[in-house]
Amino acid sequence: MIKGFGVAFAAFGILFAYQGCRTVSWPSVSGRVVSTRIDEALGSKGSTTYRPVITYRYVVDGVEHTSDRLSGAVITHGRSWAQGRCDAYPVGSEVTVYYNPRDPAKAVLESGMQWSSLLFVAIGAGLFAAGHASTRRKQREWEEKVARIRSRHDD
Fold first, then answer.
1. What is d(CA 68, CA 71) in angstroms, rounded to the nearest whole number?
2. What's the CATH number for 27-110?
3. Do the beta carbons of residue 55 and residue 39 sit within 8 Å?
4. What confidence tens digit (pLDDT) does each residue in 56-91 have?
5. Cα torsion at 118, 123, 125, 129 (round to 10°)?
6. Residue 48: is it exposed, middle or buried by C-beta count within 10 angstroms (0-12/13-18/19+)?
7. Is the pTM of this model over 0.90?
8. What is d(CA 14, CA 113) in angstroms, rounded to the nearest whole number?
9. Distances in whole angstroms, Cα of residue 130 to Cα of each of 5, 7, 123, 140
């Protein structure tokens, strides 16, 4: 079971990293921040996580779009981090918007991979390794029990 969680964590990390890396090659246009807020969500074990929501408008090929994606991955952290991200994009400020050339309605303010993607991969690898070690230990214990039973039976 732990190995399964490890694989899931690593898969999410790889997906987030991939999504972030894709944005590096996206073209950019100027945009304008229209609002900022911080979304709160209840995390595991009753903790609260915070996500900055920075809404901006931009125009691609004469069509106006609105987005609130900060980066290729959805990132939540502590309140001070989220507030710092909102403060970095004041309402009314001009921003560089990176948009998907195949679907200009998809855009981000920060292109590239986020470090948190690697954290998911590392946690996933650690959980997988711990699960694998536990499985191997249980397998050895089982094999030892079987050997003891066989040796008793042979006597």
1. 9
2. 2.40.50
3. no
4. 999 999 999 999 998 865 666 788 888 999 999 999
5. 160
6. exposed
7. no
8. 10
9. 11, 12, 10, 15
Which tokens sit at 140?
Answer: 């050895």
**Domain residue extents for the chain:** 1-25+114-155, 27-110
* Secondary structure of residue 56 in the 3-state scheme: strand
**105: Cβ–Cβ under 8 A, 6 or more apart, which residues?**
65, 67
Which of 67, 73, 75, 76 is closest to 98 using CA atoms? 67
CA–CA separation, 56 vs 89, rounded Å?
A: 10
Task: Tokens 């690898």: give the residue.
Answer: 125
Q: What residue type is 15 in one-letter code?
A: L
